[in-house]
């Protein structure tokens, strides 16, 4: 980094010290444990080079920008790093709830570098939303990799405060489905979703003074659609349920087409006359994009509902719309009790024996077979700069294949993947090393559950890119949380040794 950028970073580090002392809290063990955890994470952000990486990412493409703009980006990059880390440590709350929590706590505000001498500032929900989108998923992955390499190297783990490096020689893998934030994909409900979104957009345009002729206000059409939805819900209680469902759908189809036509005319009016409204160009573009996205799906959702309800024909999963707001989600057959199918995207996780997430992948398209996911993961992990290379790989029977076993054997990796053949499994369980790894593999399910619970079970953000970024932050936050627990255990052991 050049001298100009170095002076800016030094000024940022000096300003971060201008904060009053934290309020002393007495007789609260949970608070002090949480404060110790945040102090450990704060230390790792600094000594683990994550803050310096964040500032380097912030200046990418802005090397020739004015000094004031560079300084503002560096300040915001530190806040974005800490805000998203803390949000993951707290279980991924909503921006509104998180904003109130930080504003009401000196400890949280201090960690987010939002508390100065004159008070707490810069943690509104809109600011937090911008902070969550400041870094890309790949940049967050780079931070995770650097943290992992420091914790897994014998000569660098001391920088994080660890006496011993984390064992990365064993790779335990599993997959899961991260549910998208959608309701159950009922065909006729998709018509209601499209109508609701279009009517809300029409209302915004008419409130700005751009009115096109309509037989009634948007609320009139909304009530008509709601009545039809209620009537559709009650058809299952009738003797002629199939006939009634078809009748209701035949009335919903012309209504949604009418709403779409009104939305199209209001959209055209806003596109040509937005300058005369209170909306900025950016706001007008967002409304226009929202209308265009819904209009493009009107023929498809009508056809899908017609095929399923009136035609009583199945629609291939590849052609099926699951949500009008999320296009990159899939039907994932899990076959689990109470969850035969799930709607979302496949997440691959690889953890160490101590629970540190070594590798991950969140798939936009339908995920490849699990043996191929394992091969891709091992290829990514081989690029890490670690003291110990992978010596064993363990997974459930979904990862079992002859080609994968040959690949592991060729690379000198012990194959601890559970075989599909019960007789072969019984024979291999006689191997002590294989048995130990298979018993340890049961905890990988718990690791996935911990990760999903810390992500609030389903991702609130919309759009695959935003969900991909949220997963990356979740992995980084999980690893910081885990290492902070290791540091706390290490300190407890040292205190016990001194007391003895």
Structure description:
The protein is an alpha/beta fold and about 500 residues long. About 60% of the residues lie in helices and about 10% in strands. The chain is built from 17 helices and 9 strands. It has helices spanning about 5-15, 30-45, 50-60, 65-90, 95-105, 105-110, 125-130, 135-150, 185-205, 220-235, 240-275, 280-310, 370-380, 400-410, 420-430, 430-455, 465-500; strands at about 115, 120, 170-180, 330-335, 340-350, 355-360, 390-395, 415, 460. Strands 3, 4, 5, 6, 7, 8 and 9 form a 7-stranded mixed beta sheet that branches. A two-stranded antiparallel ribbon has the order 1-2. Helix 14 (about 400-410) links the parallel strand 7 and strand 8 (about 415). Helix 2 (about 30-45) packs across helix 17, helix 3 packs antiparallel against helix 8 and helix 9 (about 185-205) packs parallel to helix 11 (about 240-275). It is globular. The two termini are about 50 Å apart.
Percent of residues in beta strands: 5-15%
Low-confidence spans: none
Shape: globular
On the 0-100 scale, what is the average pLDDT? 90
Largest sheet composition: 7 strands, mixed
Please give the number of β-strands: 9
Number of DSSP helices?
A: 17
């Amino acid at each position: 980094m050049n001298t100009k950028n170095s002076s800016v970073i030094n000024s940022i580090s000096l300003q971060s010290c201008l904060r009053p002392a934290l309020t002393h809290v007495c007789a609260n063990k949970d608070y002090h444990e949480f404060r110790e955890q945040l102090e450990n994470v704060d230390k790792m952000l600094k000594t683990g080079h994550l803050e310096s990486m964040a500032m380097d990412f912030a200046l990418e493409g802005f090397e020739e920008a004015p000094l004031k703009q560079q300084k503002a980006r560096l300040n915001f990059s530190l806040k974005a790093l800490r805000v998203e880390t803390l949000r993951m440590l707290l279980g991924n709350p909503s921006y509104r709830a998180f904003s109130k929590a930080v504003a009401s706590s000196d400890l949280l505000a201090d960690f987010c570098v939002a508390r100065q001498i004159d008070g707490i500032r810069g943690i509104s929900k809109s600011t937090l939303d911008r902070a969550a989108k400041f870094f890309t998923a790949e940049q967050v992955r780079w931070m995770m990799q650097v943290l992992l390499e420091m914790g897994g190297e014998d000569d660098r783990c001391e920088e994080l405060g660890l006496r011993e490096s984390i064992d990365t020689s064993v790779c335990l893998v599993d997959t899961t489905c991260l549910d998208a934030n959608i309701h159950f994909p009922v065909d006729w409900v998709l018509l209601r979703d499209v109508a609701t979104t279009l009517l809300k957009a029409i209302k915004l345009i008419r409130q700005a003074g751009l009115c096109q002729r309509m037989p009634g206000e948007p609320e009139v059409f909304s009530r008509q659609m709601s009545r039809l939805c209620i009537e559709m819900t009650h058809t299952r209680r009738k003797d002629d349920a199939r006939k009634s469902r078809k009748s209701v759908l035949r009335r919903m189809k012309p209504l949604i087409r009418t709403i779409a036509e009104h939305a199209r005319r209001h959209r055209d009016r806003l596109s040509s006359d937005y300058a005369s409204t209170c909306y900025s160009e950016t706001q007008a573009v967002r409304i226009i994009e929202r209308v265009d996205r819904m209009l493009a799906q009107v023929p498809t959702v009508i056809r899908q509902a017609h095929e399923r309800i009136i035609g009583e024909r199945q629609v291939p999963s590849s052609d099926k719309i699951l949500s009008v707001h999320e296009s990159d989600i899939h039907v994932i057959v899990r076959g689990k009790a109470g969850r035969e199918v799930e709607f979302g995207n496949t997440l691959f996780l690889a953890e160490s024996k101590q629970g540190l997430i070594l590798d991950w992948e969140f798939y936009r398209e339908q995920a490849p077979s699990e043996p191929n996911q394992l091969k891709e993961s091992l290829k990514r992990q081989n690029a890490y700069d670690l003291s110990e290379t992978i010596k064993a790989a363990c997974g459930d029977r979904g990862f079992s294949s002859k080609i994968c076993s040959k690949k592991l054997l060729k690379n000198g990796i012990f194959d601890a993947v559970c075989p599909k053949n019960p007789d072969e499994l019984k024979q291999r369980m006689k191997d002590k090393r294989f048995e130990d790894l298979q018993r340890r593999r049961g905890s990988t399910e718990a690791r996935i559950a911990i990760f999903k619970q810390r992500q609030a079970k389903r991702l609130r953000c919309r759009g695959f890119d935003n969900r991909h970024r949220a997963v990356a932050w979740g992995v980084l936050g999980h690893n910081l949380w885990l290492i902070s627990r290791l540091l706390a255990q290490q300190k407890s052991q040292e205190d016990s040794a001194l007391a003895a």
